[in-house]
Amino acid sequence: MHLLEMIPPLVVCAGALLLSRRLLHYFQLESYQFRGFFKTLNRQADKALLPGLVFGAVVFVLLLIGSFFRLSGAGAIVLQAVLGLLILGAALILRSKLLKNSKEKKPFRATARVKRLIFWLCLILLAAALLIWVLFRPSGLSRVIYSLIPLFLPVWVTLAALLAIPLEKLIYEAYFRDARKKLLANDRLIRIGITGSYGKTSTKFILREMLSQKYNVLATPDSYNTPMGITGIIRSRLTPAHQVFIAEMGARHPHDIRELCRLVHPTVGVLTSVGPQHLDTFKTIETIKNTKYDLIRALPEDGLAAFGNDDGIVTELYSATDKPKILAGKEETDAWATDITVDGRGSSFLLHLRGQEPIPCTTLLLGRHNIANIVLSAALASKLGVTAKQIQSAISQLKPVEHRLRIVTSAGGVTVIDDAFNTNPVSSKSALDVLKMFAPKRIIVTPGMVELGADEAKYNREFGEYMADCVDIALLVGKKHTEPIREGLLSKGFDAENIHSFNTLDEAVAALKTMTAEGDTVMYENDLPDSYAEGE
Question: Which end of the chain is more exposed for a tag (fewer CB within 10 A), N or C?
Answer without folding.
Answer: N
